[in-house]
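Re: the request from the purification team.
They wanted to know what the chain is likely to look like in 3D before they choose a buffer screen. I agreed to run a prediction and write the result into the notebook, where they can find it.
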Amino acid sequence: MPASMMNCRPEELVERLGFADVEGGGEANLKVLRDLKNQIIGNKTKKVIYLQLGAVPRIVSILAAALEGGESCTASNIIVQSAAAIGSFSCGVDDGVQAVLNAGAVPHLIRLLSSPEEKVVDAGARSLRMIYQSKLAPKFDFLEEENLKFILLLLNDKNENLADLAASIIKHSCKSREEQKALCHAGVLQRLVSLLEGSLCQRESSLDSITTVVKDNSEIASHLSTINDGRAVNLIVGMMKDRYPRTRFLSCACLIAIGKASPRHIQELEIRTKLILILSELLEEYSQVGDEALFTLVSLVEDKEDLHKQALSMNVIQKLCDSLHRSDINGRRLQGILLALAELCSRYEKSRDHVMSSAVLDLVFNALRHECADVRIAACRLISSISRSVKSLFAGHFSTESTVHGLVQLLQDSSIPVQAAALKAICNVVVNFKASKAIFIESGCVKQFVKLSKSTDSELRLNAVWALRNLAFNADKVCRERIIFELSENALVSLISDLEPRVQELALALIRNLVDGCVESIDTILRKYAGVLDAVVGQLQTSFPEVCTQAMFVLANIAAGRDFHKEAVIGNLLPPGEDSPPVLLKLLLSSDIMLRTVTVWCIINLTQPNCPTSSSRVSRLRDAGIVSQLKTMVNDSCLDVKFRVRSLLGQCNISDQALS
């Protein structure tokens, strides 16, 4: 490029854009367009500068004028350069895509596709493909016949760029089962299959589109398996051995989509093992293919312990760990590696052991501070998976001050998904060992947990209460006091009555852990937070058995305390002057085994014979018909309930004898 072009200031170029019309000064415009295009290609900084200067609307105006200005050679060249510049602005910069859409470029670019000049068609197709790689691109509604005809027109054309554009449009726009069926019924799937035997570009475009059309749709996946007597799927399987890495990758992604939609078509262990092998080999491709292969691997092995074991035996985990040590790793690849390791360690203890022995933990902890939010989330997920190992927790790998500080810092992250992921990781780390609880308490995390438990985001609220519950589990007196101190009565009542049943359940489980075996905590809840007990009792009427069970666990733990604690519980379960059948009766008749069991446990704690007022509570239970109901449960279908009931009835007889 001549030095004069390189040194031309952006302000000058933008000012010169559109100065001359196509007829009078087309060559001048052409030169400016080339200069600008050459400056922005591959340079995001320059793109932003030109966007701020308003270059895009001017370029679109030049394109529109050139389309109306005749069929001269200059006009064609201006069209090609304008389209190329618009495509470049749309590549990798969402603000650029938005500017292109706001300027009304898409209809003009679509017009280029019907041009008799191949170079104009190519320029329009490439520019539109750049736009349709962005989530901001307009959707094609495939339930409209005209749009289906347009896609078929692109796919049936000999121009490979048009097939590539069709694939981008299908991938971006086809989101519903109805649209998948519409594409299939219109003959699009059949045409895509025929392109599997075309050129490299056609094969790859076809694979990408087929993946979208069959995704999560068993009907379409089954139909694909019947096309050409099953030859379509065999062609895709054969492409796993293709010489081109991108083709191998796309064939793997397509087969995985088919297998997820209709497992019976891709269920042979041999094929799934081959998929793991090829995807792991593609990790050595330091390109977009290698980056995306990681996410496709995650999709393949997700929630499949047999494939987790297979991956370990094929040395995939070691390969992933080795990749973490590379200094030239980009953010997207780092995210993929961490997510792949997180999935492979989520169920299989030997996979966790392998990661722990590969000296990568420091690299994972460093990733908690990465500039990319997706990487920070992936690092949290890996910590969540590895910390499921009691062995690793016991060894103290996650309870160092630096690790705790790194996780707690993320609770104040600007990204809500990062905060939620950090909370999940903390949930696992704090659940079992008092040493780690003390470090977390000292970090000031309890205040953050409580703050996040008030979030309007349901996942964040859920994870915050989960973290509090786990922190309170088997905690010492100091830890429990700190949690109770940070939680107000209103906060606890609000969580118990949350709109989300799962939050209600965890909030009750938190209180259950706080009062478990700690009379001081029971005293605090009953004396200072009286409204909490009312809220707990209120949840005995809920239609969600899990919530009701946790409420009974709270009452059972309180009933295990001092005598006046027991009186508080029975006073709420059997309120004086209540005419309707007591809630205890309903719970004992429940079909939920755990609910029946914990209800019996609560009554056992209420009637301990070593308490001076136990006999009076037995009398109240007898008068309410509870003892009669217990007698009908001596042969309960659940062995635990049966034995507890027999023990309880014996306990009640002892109390009766003491009363007489």
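For the purification team: Residues 325 and 360 are 8 Å apart (CA to CA).
Please add any questions underneath this entry.
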